[in-house]
Every structure is written in structure tokens, then in C-alpha cells.
Amino acid sequence: MTIITNDEPEMGPVDMIVIGFPPDAPRTGEAIPLFLDLVDRGIVRVLDVLVVQRDDGGNVTRLEIDGLAGTVLASVAVFDGAQTGLLGDDDAAVAGEALEPGEAAVLICFENRWAAPFIAAVRRNGGRLLAAQRIGAQELLDTIQTLDAVA
């Protein structure tokens, strides 16, 4: 385990998400400005972006962002060059296995910058992270529904 000292930069937890798009998805890029707003406000920092596609033969190919066309290129061009090396061929292959033929996916690795000052303060006070778990949105909604039914 690596311990971050006070003379190292504050960093928040890093997440990686994979978003799949079937071939008939509109791919309008509507979500990109919402994500960029989080970046602009310093809530998250994009570390890596990777686009993959599975062809009809089952082959998974990494796509260069600057090689995308139309509205897809217009919406994701801002991520061209976002590469730290955290996402690689293994990640592309794993994401590609979940895709249907003709489907594409974007992998985004980002730092949760909002948490960095909190984490640094915890460490300065001798605290350490013992566990972390993400609760999925559907699980949360199911729990709320169950609680509402009981109430």
C-alpha cells in the first residue's frame, strides 16, 4: 500500500466507467456538456478516454477519437489526447467482450477531485480508508421503494 504524504499532491479517488452504445443509438453527445460542466467546475478531472467498437466478426478495435465522424466526433473531440496510460489494451478487450456486434463503448477514467481535500484532511489526522463500495443507482432505487412500501 502506498501512503500519500503531505508533500505529495492531493488526489481524489479514481473511477473508470464504461458506457455502451448500440449501433442504432442516436449518439447525439447530449451527455458530454453535462460531464464537461463537472470538469469545468473542478469536481472531476479526466485522466483517460478510450473508445472501442466490436465489429460483426466479434473483433474489438480501439477507435481514435479524431477518426470518429459526424455528431460523435463533434461531441467527444474535446477528449482527444486525454491519455495518461491508465486505460490500455486489456481494458479495451474487457469492455469489448461486453459489447454486441456493431456496438461501441467509451471508457472514461476520471479523478473525483471534490474528495481530494477531504481525503488529505483525514490522512493528516491519522485516518485511513478501510473500505470503499459503490452502490448502484438501481440498488438505491429498489431500497428506497422498499422503504416507501413499509412506511
Unreliable runs, pLDDT <50, ≥5 residues?
Answer: 1-6
Helices, by number, come to 5
Percent range of helical residues: 25-40%
Order of helices and strands: EHEEHHEHH
Global mean pLDDT: 84
Can you walk through the features of this model?
By secondary structure, the protein is α+β, with helices and mostly antiparallel strands. The protein is 32% helix and 20% strand. The protein is built from 5 helices and 4 strands, in the order E-H-E-E-H-H-E-H-H. It has helices spanning 31-40, 70-76, 89-97, 116-124, 137-150, and strands at 14-21, 45-54, 60-63, 104-111. It has a 4-stranded antiparallel sheet with strand order 1-4-2-3. The longest helix is centred in the last third of the chain and has 14 residues, at 137-150.
What's a quick, concise take on this entry?
32% of the residues lie in helices and 20% in strands. With 151 residues, it is an alpha+beta fold.
Short key terms for the protein model shown above:
151 residues, alpha+beta, four-stranded antiparallel sheet, 5 helices, 32% helix, 20% strand, disordered N terminus
What's the structural blueprint in terms of helices and strands?
Layout: E1 14-21, H1 31-40, E2 45-54, E3 60-63, H2 70-76, H3 89-97, E4 104-111, H4 116-124, H5 137-150
